[in-house]
Amino acid sequence: MKYIDEYRNKEQVQALIRAIRQTVTRTWHIMEICGGQTHAIARYRLEDMLPPEIQLLHGPGCPVCVTPVEIIDQALTLARRPDVIFTSFGDMMRVPGSKKDLLQVKAKGGDIRMLYSPLDAVTLAEENPDKEVVFFAIGFETTAPVHLMALKEAIRKGLNNFTLLTSLFTVPPAIEAILSDKGCKVDGFLTAGHVCAITGNGAYRQLAERYKTPMVVTGFEPVDLLYGIYRCICQLEAGIYNVENAYKRAVPEHGNIPACILMDEMLESCDIEWRGIGVIPNSGKQLRTAFKKYSSREKFKFLPKEIRISSECIAGEIMKGRKQPRDCPYFGTTCHPEHPIGAPMVSSEGVCAAYYKYK
Amino acid sequence: MNCPIPFSDSDCVLLSHGGGGRMTHQLISRIFYPAFRNPLLEQDHDGCVFTVDAGRMAYSTDSFVVDPIFFPGGDIGDLAVNGTVNDLACCGATPLYLTAGFILEEGLPLKDLERIVQSMKRAADKAGVQIVAGDTKVVERGKCDKLFINTSGVGIVLPGIYIAPSLAKEGDVVICSGAIGTHGITILSARESLGFETNLRSDTASLNNMISELFNYIDEIHVLRDPTRGGVSGTLNEIAQAANAEIILDEASLPIPEEVQAASDILGLDPLYVANEGLVLVILPEKEAGKALSVMQRFAEGKQATVIGHVSSCGKALVKMKTIYGNYRVIDMLSGEQLPRIC
Q1: pLDDT tens digits, residue range A87-117?
Q2: What domain range includes position B170?
Q3: Whole-prediction pTM value?
Q4: Which of B194, B325, B328 is the closest to A116 by Cβ?
Q5: In this structure, are residues B331 and B246 in contact, taking their beta carbons and an 8 Å threshold?
Q6: How far away is chain A from the Cα of B115, in angstroms, using its nearest Cα?
Q7: Could you tell me if B248 and B304 lie in one domain?
């Protein structure tokens, strides 16, 4: 398969492993931000091939995992309403709220549709004028423009029965929260290639400079990941800290400008809770006042609610890079994909789920 | 007394088609009998009485609820026949007779029902089995999705044939009869909401003729399983548990078509967990592998047959995969359903 096979190529992988071995002289902690990267690292057992000096830490970049319980509960409340068709991407279906998940609500009669594109939700709204269609708009900068494009389409069609239940996160404030944490062990970052494909690399330059930490824009196939690690190690060993693009086939320096304009037009920054980590200031995005009437939260008048969940696991420590899944006493015992206790076991891209699956 | 109501000329299934009266008989005589006609069915009894040689028999049942009911490469009808035929064949049996139970949704176009019944007939003819009893129920619109079919079947297990998942042994190899994942990905891409098309076709096919030929040539076959729901991974995990054995797959040898891999990558699925409907995993001693492959490759369903792994040891139930990079990872049972990924 073109653009896939060459990035899974065995000889390329072995050559990069050799290059990393020849370059590394001491222990370095490198964090990959994105859940897709974590999943690929676990799936291809890349850690088994790396020299022991390279310690990979797994970041909080799985939007399914970090969506707070409060928002999941709002989704469940909406999905139960007889006047609502609740629509979502597939992997939100199994994420537990404080009591139930969407699959359970669906089994009890909630009209919940699993979609592959938010535009399908717009079509549903058009076809069902007597129903309220809610799309569960979760994601980082990668998926936000897709949700907004669907909303634009709904507005263009004059639909008044379409809203977004947003749970939108941005990466740079999370990296800053990790780097400014006192116990931070991270020496270098592999930033999420697909996020950078939208936002470009500007925000990361300030962070690299301020925290003297190299950031390498990295893709998702084994060759991409190892090349990202190699470039990061080269910087660390040389004592430099730049933003470097190791995923040029997908990431232009300034990102996807029309997508950024769309986000600026429709979204504003807000504080948001990251499940397992806590509130990170200015790390969320919400619809601007002009578009508030398309926010499910406004339309259905949800008030903010404090939800206490038992914090038996060490999800926060893992996602900040302080600990590994295997350090958790619940990993694989009481906490597994059928019964996730913590956020990273929830989605297939959560670090605990990836390590559980490919253990 | 003559019924004052004339025969229906409805073009779709009505509730009265399931009432047991004239309309039911009309449905049976116009659609089911012409397709399935055979002396055992025409006993017109509550069931069917037949004679078999003394010996061991295999008996299996399966229900089919696939959506959409028509898809590239097949439909719910041939799927229902092939499914039970293959389950019997994987028990080491020669499939003989099937029953078919239909649950029809009010409003189902009769031409769709007829098309499905004709496709069942063709599948039964190809597999050399007869449909000897049946049942039809009609439920109100919305109470089922177009139609559901249950098939049950019996077959004879010839003397000397012993097939069971618990019989996998150290030193055995695992043969896969063809391309992995085509049925599941075909069904997914045939669903309206997916928004992309592939040239894939479901692999639905009866495997009993190929399996019967294997028995003609190979003295020692330990396990036969069709990796339907749960895919190759789910089936191999079941075998590993039944035999308390470790099975190692070789990633480089897995026959995963490019289109299946590409669609799986886009959707965040793993082809090893995707359903197949015309595939069989054959586990037998390594010395028999060459002969088995040449027998299987003579059949359309086995053209791409290849060794995909081996049973490495007994004492611990585990399925692992040697990756293309030479390291190993565990291939676990799936937790729940595979759900498409967001990004």
Answers
A1: 999 889 988 888 889 999 999 999 999 998 9
A2: 165-330
A3: 0.89
A4: B194
A5: no
A6: 30
A7: yes
